[in-house]
Design a protein that fits this description.
With 310 residues, this protein is an alpha/beta fold. It has helices at 3-8, 28-37, 49-57, 66-70, 83-91, 96-99, 114-126, 139-144, 156-169, 181-209, 214-222, 229-240, 249-266, 271-288, 296-303, and strands at 18-22, 41-45, 61-62, 75-78, 105-108, 130-133, 136-137, 148-153, 170-177. Bound molecules: nicotinamide-adenine-dinucleotide.
């Protein structure tokens, strides 16, 4: 089954489509597992054997490198940390573009710089590779239960070709514009999420300082205008001082670099975004880069001269 045939039919059996997944970390691992569950033939590659073995245990196939993952795949899905990682994996001598079959479809679900996404889409076009940028939101939980929100940039026909795969790993899939626009929307997402986490962190430390029962406070706050997904999903962990990622501070620091650069380039003032970018950077500089981004609470406690309750 070729991508072109897949385009012509909305009833394609997933088992006839091979998806190569490169990057099987916190997000890519469960996304690949959901593709297996939906019946896709999934072949995975990640640096180091452990993550690949985990995919095999869930019914996927192992590849020893990018080239062997990509050769023979109808769709290549990358889920890598940062722009340079995606550039290496895609443009490298033994990378995706060197081995993907003609008219193959590359879906990048990593969060990277919009300008890099635009450049890579143009490079894909020159090699007759079909490309969409499809960064995701919803965190590890969304990856596990296939409820990710996916912001997709690219040509209409390519986005439609990618849709069956994206619908398998997400529940809200929206084509937001041409190549790179998925990444621009994702940058806006990261601005909102970081700012919200910081405000929730400040509220929790404030409540704690006043001796208020934080669980009860969160219950009532979540039902009013202050209600938001961070309260729903992160506040319990923040109250417990549990910061296992989730989404690492290192990665959100990377994303806030993307947001501040893109805002500057567009001449847009993001004063609160700039402040939270500084706070995320400070949290990282204090050695907390591998904690969940909700660890912003630790910084608020430090700035407030308050030692952590346990
Ligand atoms: P992660 O670090 O858990 O996973 C990335 C994986 O890629 C790792 O297993 C790493 O070994 C592998 N890798 C790195 N370079 C590689 C290479 N050259 N070849 C093969 N494998 C390579 O990160 P994650 O949390 O899964 O995030 C991945 C992307 O998704 C990032 O861009 C992140 O910003 C974005 N994202 C993460 C979340 C989240 O909650 N974790 C949510 C939305 C978006």
């Amino acid at each position: 089954m070729t991508i072109e045939e897949q385009d012509r039919s909305t009833q394609v059996a997933a088992s006839t489509v091979t998806v190569a997944v490169i990057g099987l970390g916190i997000m890519g691992g469960p996304m690949a597992a959901n593709l297996v569950k939906a019946g896709y033939d999934v072949i995975g590659y990640n640096r180091g054997r452990v993550r690949v073995d985990a995919l095999v245990a869930r019914g996927g196939r192992a590849a020893r490198d990018v080239a062997s993952a990509v050769a023979g795949a109808d769709v290549v899905l990358t889920m890598l940390p940062d722009s340079p990682d995606v550039e290496d994996v895609v443009l490298g001598r033994d990378g995706v573009f060197a081995h993907i079959r003609p008219r193959g479809l590359w879906i990048d679900t990593s969060t990277i710089r919009p300008d890099v996404a635009v450049r890579l889409a143009a490079a894909a076009g020159e090699r007759a590779v079909r490309a969409v940028d499809a960064p995701v939101s919803g965190g590890e939980a969304g990856a596990i239960d296939a409820s990710l929100s996916i912001m997709v940039g690219g040509a209409e026909a390519d986005v439609e070709a990618a849709r069956p795969v994206l619908d398998t790993v997400g529940s809200t899939v929206v084509h937001v514009g041409p190549a790179g626009s998925g990444q621009t929307v994702k940058a806006a997402n990261q601005l909102i999420v970081a700012g919200t986490i910081e405000l929730v962190a400040e509220a929790l430390v404030f409540l704690d300082a006043h001796g208020v029962d934080a669980e009860a406070a969160v219950r009532v706050l979540a039902g009013g205008l202050a209600g938001n997904r961070i309260l729903d999903r992160k506040a319990a962990g923040m109250i417990a001082g549990e910061y296992t990622p989730g989404f690492r501070v290192d990665l959100h620091h990377k994303d806030l670099g993307i947001v501040t650069a893109a805002a500057r380039e567009a001449g847009v003032a993001i004063p609160l975004g700039a402040a939270v970018a500084q706070l995320m950077g400070a949290l990282r500089a204090r050695g907390h880069g591998s904690l969940d981004h909700s660890a912003l609470r630790l910084l608020v406690e430090e700035l407030s001269g308050r030692t952590r309750r346990t």
